[in-house]
Each structure stands twice: as structure tokens, then as C-alpha cells.
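F.,

This is the one I mentioned.
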């Protein structure tokens, strides 16, 4: 049995605010989403169930979810976390973001993973991933694509970000 606790230092009557002075990256969306799920799963009296993110290149928001839906999605995230403690999960935020925001494009995910013309910037060069994945010949396998959709699909369904609507080739990588 797991118990989840969360602290919200930027909680206001209008909801949760997350901010940083840098461009928005996939990890920012994911961190805000997990906080948002916790906020909506256990609503705070007098506080809107809205999460907003502000960064150097713009803003995004998640609107209120029903507590039951938020608990279900948060439970799934905790189950994945628990599974990841047992074996490496094939979830890589930057490559997954490139894939899911581009309609499931395996090509975009592969470019993000390998770095394309700049391999030194590929997500696959991360020493932690290289260590965890030794012995796995193809990191962007069926498991990766399934996890990318499972984790980021609900996030994107509830995300309001005009930057993603106006720039279809935007990979928001970093």
C-alpha cells in the first residue's frame, strides 16, 4: 500500500502556479501534470482545481478534473513508478513528447533520441539511460510507444497551450 503526499508552495485561490525562467520543456509539462493530478484528486476547499505554468516562452494550463478521474490517473502514474523501481521502463520524456505531439511519429521520437544532426544532444546519450538500458538493443520499442501514449495521452487531452496548436513541428525539446 502506498501513501502519496504533496506540497504546493505556489497554491492560490485561483489554483496552482508553476513557474521558471527558461523555455517550457517536456519535463515541465509532466511535473505540472503530476502536481495537477494530486491537486484534483484531493481538492482543497476555496481553491480552484486549475494548474498554470509560466515560462520564458509562454504559458500553459490544465483545467479541473473530477476527483475520481484524477485519482485513477494518479494511481496509474504511481503504478508505473513502482514498476520502474523493479525494472527499467522504456519511457524517455523528450523522445516521448516528440512522438506523442507529432501524432505518434516514430521518426520524430528517433530523431530526439539520437540527436539527429547533433548526436551529442540526443536523449540516448544520457549516462543514466545508457546504464539502465545496457542489454536492450532497441530502446524505442513497442513498450516505449505504449508508455508514451499511456503517460502523455491524458496529459495532452487536458493541456491548454496555444504554442502546440500553432506550431505543428514544435518538439519543445531541451
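My design for it:
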Amino acid at each position: 500500500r502506498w501513501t502519496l503526499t504533496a506540497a504546493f508552495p505556489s497554491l492560490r485561490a485561483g489554483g496552482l502556479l508553476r513557474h521558471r525562467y527558461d523555455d517550457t520543456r517536456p519535463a515541465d509539462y509532466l511535473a505540472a501534470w503530476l502536481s495537477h493530478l494530486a491537486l484534483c484528486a484531493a481538492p482543497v476547499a476555496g481553491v480552484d482545481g486549475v494548474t498554470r505554468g509560466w515560462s520564458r516562452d509562454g504559458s500553459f494550463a490544465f483545467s479541473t478534473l473530477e476527483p475520481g478521474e484524477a485519482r485513477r490517473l494518479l494511481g496509474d502514474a504511481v503504478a508505473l513508478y513502482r514498476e520502474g523501481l523493479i525494472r527499467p521502463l522504456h519511457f524517455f520524456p523528450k523522445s516521448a513528447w516528440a512522438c506523442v505531439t507529432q501524432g505518434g511519429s516514430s521518426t520524430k521520437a528517433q530523431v530526439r533520441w539520437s540527436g539527429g544532426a547533433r548526436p551529442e544532444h540526443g536523449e540516448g546519450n544520457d549516462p543514466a539511460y545508457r546504464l539502465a538500458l545496457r542489454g536492450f538493443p532497441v530502446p524505442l520499442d513497442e513498450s516505449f510507444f505504449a508508455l508514451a501514449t499511456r503517460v502523455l495521452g491524458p496529459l495532452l487531452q487536458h493541456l491548454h497551450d496555444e504554442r502546440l496548436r500553432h506550431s505543428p513541428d514544435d518538439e519543445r525539446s531541451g
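The longest strand covers residues 15-19.

Talk soon.
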